[in-house]
Structures are given as structure tokens and as C-alpha cells.
DNA sequence: TCCATTTTTAGAATCATTCCAATTCTGTTT
DNA sequence: AAACAGAATTGGAATGATTCTAAAAATGGA
């Protein structure tokens, strides 16, 4: 019998190895966290949530790991919010929306990413679109 | 005879007043700087360039002013780069490109801004698209 | 087991930004 | 012009996210 936990852990491990990243306990934990929490967490949120399970975990390790994952193209770095960086393990094309009043960051699905025509000689290997406004919940609060 | 300087200063003053911002010496200087330097500067760059002319200028004032300008919709806050915020006084639709090797941030003209279809109830009042890759100059260095 | 390399760690250091309380400036009323 | 109230500016301290550093721990061969 194969436990669900093992299945997830194997997917996580494979995804890391596919990108040449040695799957240490800490790296697995950060990657699994991002794959199972689609909340665009900050480094600090990840650290705080993982810390109870890995009491020796250091914030530096979380930062090291996130930087490595971003460098290798395994997760996306999101700068939709000035205060702190956000991370997203979903690499399918989608844009991010931030609500001005509650601060939530939501995924918005799109067919493909928009890459405008660039000046001659410029090459683009990544693009991000950020939309900012008011989410459905906050709009309702105002209208009722 | 009207000096060119006066013309610019008048445009700057009008743009501030149009948005209900009292045109103090410091605010005029920051706004004029942004309108005449299309380099997407950081608060620090603005402070350093303005300081020689306004020796009493404080960094807090530069931050206060930039925050006010962004709040009132007079300039754009650009978060294409994690280290520090960038500012842009051009409100015409355009997207930003950042070169991975030299760090330059360039404007790319577009007809209109892309705003993907949002989930029901979500309203968008601003959107930004960031493209990242290699600029023409850096691509040439590699290919020659 | 021993050794070399990689990874993790805690805490210090850095750096952008905000906060704070005091001062200066502005415009208005006597 | 003096007195005043409110707004803007100021320097420096405080904050908070991130990076750096040097030591300790883990890993994986020979």
C-alpha cells in the first residue's frame, strides 16, 4: 500500500532532481509547501509554517532554497507587492491579481502569456502581468 | 522672453495642482526629475541627484513625495526589481523590460494595456506587465 | 573510517523604507 | 507686521526583509 504522502513526496523529489537540485529534507519541505499551498506565501510564512515540523530549520535555509528554486526555474518570484517577495510553484501561464483592500493575491487563468513586440535585438525569457483592484468579496462588502 | 526652464516648471506645477498636490519646492523638484529622467530611478537615485541643488533635502521627503505622487496617480510605482522600488512619471500605456545582465529597465510601447478576463465580481483599476530577458546591447556582446 | 564537498545554521550585517518628534514654512487673521 | 494654525520638511532612530559569514552538520564516495 502506498500512502498519499509518499506520492506527493515523490513528485516533489522528481521535480527537484529534474532541475539538478539535490533533494535535501529542507528543500523537499519548502518545495512541497509551495506545491500544496497556492497562497503565494512569503519566505517568512513558509518558515513559520514549516518550523514546528523542522525545529532546526533556519530562515537562511528558506531563503537559500527559494533563491535556488527561482534561479533554476522551478518556482516563480512574484513582486506584485513591495513589502516582500512572494513565491509560486505553479508554472502554467496565469496572471496575478492583488486586492487593494484585503491584500489577497489570486491566480487568474489565461490561455497564454502576453509578450508585447520588443525592440530589435531584445530577447524575452519571462513575463509577468500584475492586476490590482478589488476582489469580489471586498466589492460585495461595499455594495451591500 | 520665456525661458525653457520656466516652461517645464509650469508644466510640473500644473500637473501637481491638477491632482490636488501643493507644489512645494521639494515636490516640484522630485516631479520635474521624474519627468525629465525617463530612467525609472529609485528613491535613492532621485535623492542623490537632487541633493547638490537642495542641500537641506531629506530622504524622508523624497519618500513622502513619491508615496503621495503614487497615491494620487501622478506617477507609477514599478516593482520589476526586488531590491528597490522604481518610479515612472509616464502614464501612457507601456510595459517595462528588465535586462538580466546589465540591469537596465526599458520602456516598450504598446497600443493598450492587457487586462485578462477577471473572475466575476473582481474589478481592476491598474495593470502592469514586466518582461525580463536580455537587451540588444547585451545580446550583441555575447554574439560578437 | 576518513576526507572533500555540499548544505544547513544562528546570528550579525545590510539596506530600503517608515516612523517620530521637532522645526520650518505657508497662508490667514488681527 | 505679529500671531496663529495647519501643512510640509527634516534628521535620526526604528523596522523589517534579505543577505552575509563563519562554523557545524550532513552527505557521498574512496
Description:
2 copies of one chain form a homodimer. By secondary structure, the first copy, chain A, is an alpha+beta fold. Helices cover 39% and strands 20% of the residues of chain A. In chain A, the strands form 2 sheets. Chain A has a 3-stranded mixed beta sheet. A two-stranded antiparallel ribbon of chain A has the order 1-2. In chain A, a hairpin with a 7-residue loop joins β1 and β2. In chain A, α1 packs across α2, α2 crosses α4 and α3 packs across α4. The longest helix of chain A has 15 residues. Chain A is globular, with a radius of gyration of 17 Å. The interface between A and B is large, with 38 and 38 residues.
Uncertain runs of chain A with pLDDT below 50, 5 residues or more? none
Quick one: overall form of chain A?
A: globular
Class derived from helix and strand content of chain A:
alpha+beta
Helical content of chain A (DSSP H or I, runs of 4+): 25-40%
Order of strands, main sheet of chain A, comes to: 4-3-5
Summary keywords:
20% strand, 144 residues, DNA-binding, three-stranded mixed β-sheet, homodimer, globular, two-stranded antiparallel ribbon
Write a concise synopsis of the structure shown.
Helix content of chain A is 39%, strand content 20%. Chain A has helices at residues 4-18, 25-36, 43-50, 59-71, 136-143, and strands at residues 76-78, 86-88, 94-99, 105-109, 123-134. Strand 5 (123-134) of chain A pairs antiparallel with strand 5 of chain B, so a sheet runs across the interface.
